[in-house]
Design brief:
Keywords: Metal-binding, Oxidoreductase
Oligomer: single chain
Structural class: mainly beta
Strand content: 35-45%
Shape: globular
Helix content: under 10%
Mean pLDDT: 91
Radius of gyration: 21 Å
Enzyme class: oxidoreductase
Pfam family, one: Cu-oxidase_3
CATH topology of one domain: Immunoglobulin-like
Largest sheet: 7 strands, mixed
Low-confidence stretches: 1-40
EC number: 1.16.3.4
InterPro entries: Cu-oxidase-like_N, Cu-oxidase_2nd, Cu-oxidase_C, Cu-oxidase_fam, Cu_oxidase_Cu_BS, Cupredoxin, TAT_signal
CATH superfamily of one domain: Cupredoxins -  blue copper proteins
Length: 482
């Protein structure tokens, strides 16, 4: 068992402040008795169940080169904690939602029917889409209604995901289960000798707070008691692997929690991709940092471990305490042939053009303990009737985004575009941020400079903090291209 030597000495709480006035005081790490005493125990035993593989959805039609899928949003009950039933909001009754596998330049149509008793809106996170297909916060599907989303898939490969985005309820809808993965590939990615097929595995991680008496999934804005990790919908699972290389697609589907993923033996992981697909070059690292909504693909070579090894994937992220310090376990159970490899060069990204405009964005939320705190972009609450930024079609803009809080972390997500990180706190970004991104973390006081090209669709889109409790509290704004 790994020690807590790597946990931050005074890790910040990732819970944030909710509409109920939950405290933003920092949570101590596992060495601090205050945090250990205040944090509820995990609701499930460690490594007692096998990690599920998220089912890949089959199209109902492929006629005319268009893949058509059908999904129904409905309430189901499932056993997540041993012996208890939990009510969930799901796509097709699955938790998490089924994975869609798509190809570049092959359109996908998803027919969504809402059989829930709340409004919904389905956003394909990271995709370049016309405004009508983006799943905007106010473009909702009423209970009992249905709509059709069309995804052209004209962008390069990327591990995208889809989730609810209906304003004011997006946080609870996603927390209760309305999220799934959308894996877009192309010839460039497929030509590389990376691990494929059964050795290319989605690992979607999120946290949850259960009533351990009856299995109810408890929801409260800004809840700091979400101390049970779920991986592909199962609590603290084990995953049986062969003694060879795997491509693991880590995705943080938590509402608020920041993750710092490490192997318990401090073993190397080779990061090969981030939100927007492959990095230019692989990056060998001990830790993968993911804020809410971020993704990272890594290759782990399990051939360095003998059969019989049991290796824990840890979380040493901000706010980590004993109850959220272990995520899952890899069990090396057999040998296998392996003809995969990680090339020294993964892709080429075009040179960034000269910027046509520069902007500043400031994220801030109330953190003074008031009863009804709010969250702001440029000191404004989200107003869907207001356009906050107007952008010329074809523009390539530099945005400098600052977290003005001293306690609360944030992150930043833009609809429509993938962007490049130019600077973090005035310095060049690390190799993990060298590729295309759609979500970027901002710890208290941090500033990130990014550049994005608005050269696809015209129309109105939002940008916001992707800690969904924060966006539901008002930390969202509108940009109009054209």
């Amino acid at each position: 068992m790994a020690t807590r030597r790597r946990v931050l000495g005074a890790g910040l709480s990732i819970a944030g402040v909710g509409l109920t006035g939950v405290s933003l005081l920092p949570a101590l790490n596992a060495r601090g008795a205050t945090a250990a005493a205040a944090t509820p125990a995990a609701a499930a035993p460690l490594f007692a169940v096998a990690m599920p593989l998220v089912p890949v959805l089959a199209p109902v039609s492929t006629a005319g080169g268009v893949d058509v899928y059908e999904m129904t949003m409905r309430t189901v009950t499932k056993e997540i904690l041993p012996g208890l039933r939990t009510e969930l909001r799901t796509y097709n009754g699955q938790f998490p939602g089924p994975t869609i596998k798509a190809r570049r330049n092959r359109p996908v149509v998803v027919r969504q029917r809402n059989e829930l008793d709340v409004h919904t809106s389905v956003h394909l996170h990271g995709a370049a889409l016309p405004p009508s297909e983006d799943g905007a916060p106010m473009d909702v599907i009423a209970p009992g209604a249905e709509r059709r989303y069309t995804y052209p898939n004209r962008q390069p490969h990327a591990s995208l995901w889809y989730h609810d985005h209906a304003h004011h309820v997006e946080s609870e809808n996603v927390y209760r289960g309305l999220h799934g993965s959308y894996l877009l590939t192309d010839e460039e990615e497929e030509a590389l000798p990376l691990p494929k097929d059964e050795y290319d595995v989605l690992i979607a991680i999120r946290d949850a707070h259960f009533d351990t008496a009856d299995g109810t999934l408890l929801y409260q804005m800004g809840d700091r008691a979400r101390t049970t990790f779920l991986v592909n919908g199962a609590p603290y699972p084990y995953f049986e692997v062969a003694s060879r290389s795997y491509r693991l697609r880590f995705a943080n589907h938590s509402n608020q929690r920041f993750l710092e993923l490490r192997l318990a033996d401090d073993g190397d992981m080779v990061q090969i991709a981030s939100d927007g697909g492959l990095l230019p070059r692989p990056h060998t690292t001990k830790a993968i940092h993911l804020s809410s909504g971020e993704r990272a693909d890594v290759v782990i070579d399990f051939s360095r471990y003998p059969v019989g090894t049991r290796l824990v994937l840890e979380n040493t992220g901000p706010g980590a305490v004993e109850d959220v310090s272990q995520v899952m376990r890899f069990d090396v159970v057999r040998t296998a042939e392996d003809d995969s490899s990680v090339p020294r060069v993964l892709r080429s990204l075009p040179r960034l053009p000269a910027p046509t405009a520069e902007r500043t964005v400031v994220l801030r939320m109330d953190e003074d303990g008031r009863a009804h705190p709010r969250a702001y972009i440029d000191e404004k609450l989200y107003d869907p009737a207001r356009v906050d930024i107007r952008i010329r079609p074809g523009a390539s803009e530099i945005w400098t985004v600052t977290n003005a809080n001293t306690k609360a972390p944030h992150n930043f997500h833009m609809h429509l575009v993938q962007f490049r990180v130019l600077q973090r706190n005035g310095a060049a970004p690390g190799p993990e941020e060298s590729g295309l991104k759609d979500t970027v973390r901002l710890l208290p006081g941090e500033t990130v400079t990014l550049q994005a090209a608005f050269d696809t669709y015209r129309g109105t889109y939002v940008y916001h903090c992707h800690m969904l409790d924060h966006s539901a509290m008002g930390m969202m704004a509108t940009m109009k291209i054209g």
